[in-house]
Design a protein that fits this description.
Blueprint: H1 15-24, E1 39-43, E2 48-52, H2 55-64, H3 80-83, H4 92-102, H5 108-130, E3 136-138, H6 139-156, H7 163-178, H8 200-226, H9 233-238, H10 251-282, H11 284-293, H12 309-321, E4 328-331, E5 336-338, E6 341-343, E7 348-351, H13 353-356, H14 377-386, H15 400-417, E8 418-422, E9 430-432, E10 436-438, E11 443-448
Parallel strand pairs: 2-7
Antiparallel strand pairs: 1-2, 3-11, 4-7, 5-6, 8-11, 9-10
Family: Belongs to the cytochrome P450 family.
Organism: Donghicola mangrovi
Protein name: Cytochrome P450
Length: 449
């Protein structure tokens, strides 16, 4: 049994047809040959793009010369009303300064401090799931709920039921419905001053989300000055000074960062967890193994996470098959020689974890679900050169370690209490929205263990 993946398009289509397919779903707009190619060039009247799969080229772009391949703003144009100048969209010295302030909050030792909040969110998710025992439900809204709960508990020490947290969560769903990640500026170069023609609904949702986050951030800034702020991630980030300049984030800068923490932190985790639950329903023998191992979760002590080895292998394999961020785009700042091609300045360099993780020349049986890959030398070699669910190099996701603990814990807690069964008539098909989601939801039947 092979888990579902999107059907590839015909090898050659018109630019207009490609734009239509791309706007609908980035993944199904791509040809089948990308699962074997080391590099593919796409030409439009406005720019060239190069999808890169060869490990040596990936290292060049992400690790060896990352400053020569800054993040492209094209695919992120649709997020501009919400994200401001967050670390997700900046480059160069501005991005480096932001990372110097943010990274210390996510260092290894901080995971132990945030774990009780993750544990509480996981327990709350179990209680909510109890209401669905005996029912068939779309699990994506449930995984979004728990992932958002983790973000608010770890950032601001408030549960998702908090008035402002609940408003942000629900308004963000409205924002997602009103604004696709890809708009006209992804295809046609547009100067910064030119209007982007966002809908009124999109702009209103972004404005409300940012105003709510501003309230939380301003209140926290006041608590820090009064000396009674909790020691959570928001306090840690807002009190960390740039070691080079001594400056801390202003309230406005922190609003930008919280917006991306919420978007990236809860969207990616929700996607990963939903697809992992589907794989567990598809492979009940693995589900039972994870559930049995999860009996080690008793006290809520951080040390128990180290016992969840099967769950971690399952979650890692789910991230391989269904990476939450299926594509990333960089841009050349000068002409570059890529294999036998010269990429002009301003070329778009597309890095696709979705294609890389299923590459036929880099993985054995790439479309199959096999959590034991890491136990073979071939699997370990493939993982070293062709596995990047959190990107790689200096721009690797600062919350990667956080996400691995969160995902493994919540997966184990849910499977300890419930059994998830796949519905034959409801096969989810991956599509690329803000993250990798199912075109029509992921519907599973829930029963109590």
């Amino acid at each position: 049994m092979i888990p579902p993946k999107p059907a590839a398009r015909a090898d050659k289509v018109s630019l207009w047809r490609y734009m239509q397919l791309f706007r609908k779903d980035i993944l199904s707009a791509q040809p089948q040959r990308l699962y074997r190619a080391w590099m593919a060039e796409f030409r439009t009247p406005f720019f060239r793009s190069y999808l890169v799969n060869q490990p040596e080229l990936l290292d060049l772009v992400l690790k060896e010369r990352p400053m020569d391949f800054p993040k492209s703003g094209r695919v992120n144009e649709g997020l501009r009303p919400l994200l401001g100048r967050s670390v997700f969209v900046t480059n160069g010295a501005e991005w480096q300064r932001q990372r110097r302030i943010i990274d210390p909050a996510f260092e290894g030792g901080r995971l132990r401090d945030t774990y009780p909040a993750m544990w509480a969110a996981a327990q709350a998710a179990v209680q909510r799931m109890e209401r669905h025992v005996g029912q068939t439900i779309d699990v994506e809204p449930e995984t979004s709920h728990v992932a958002a709960d983790v973000i608010f508990r770890t950032l601001f020490t408030i549960p998702i039921e908090h008035e402002i947290a609940s408003q942000v969560f629900h308004e963000f769903r409205a924002y997602q419905r009103s604004q696709p990640i890809v708009n006209l500026a992804a295809f046609i170069p547009m100067p910064k001053w030119m209007p982007r023609f966002f809908s009124r609904e999109t702009k209103d949702s972004a404005r409300l989300i940012r105003s709510l986050i501003t309230r939380l951030t301003s209140d926290r800034m006041a608590a820090i000055h009064q000396g009674n702020a909790p020691g959570d991630l928001a306090t840690k980030i807002m009190t960390t000074a740039d070691p080079e300049t001594g400056e801390t984030f202003t309230t406005e800068e922190m609003v930008d960062q919280v917006a991306i923490f919420f978007l990236a932190g809860h969207e990616t985790s929700a996607s990963a967890l939903a697809w992992t639950l589907y794989l567990m329903a598809l492979y009940p023998e693995w589900q039972d193994r994870v559930a049995s191992e999860a009996m080690a979760l008793e006290s809520g002590d951080f040390s128990e996470v180290s016992k969840l080895k099967i769950s971690r292998d399952v979650f890692r394999e789910a991230l391989r098959l269904y990476p939450p961020v299926p594509m990333m785009v960089r841009e050349t700042v000068q002409p570059e020689c890529l294999r036998d091609r010269t990429a002009p300045k301003g070329s778009q360099i597309v890095l696709s974890p979705f294609h890389l993780h299923r590459h036929e020349r880099l993985w054995d049986n790439p479309d199959a679900f096999d959590p034991e890959r890491s136990k073979t030398e071939e699997g370990r070699t493939s993982a070293r050169c062709a596995y990047m669910p959190f990107s790689a190099g200096p721009r690797v996701c600062t919350g990667a370690g956080f996400a691995m603990v969160e995902g493994v814990l919540i997966l184990s807690m849910l499977l300890r209490h419930f059994r998830f069964e796949a519905i034959d008539s409801e096969v989810p098909i991956p599509v690329a929205h803000l993250t990798l989601r199912s075109a029509n939801g992921i519907h599973l039947k829930i029963t109590r263990r």
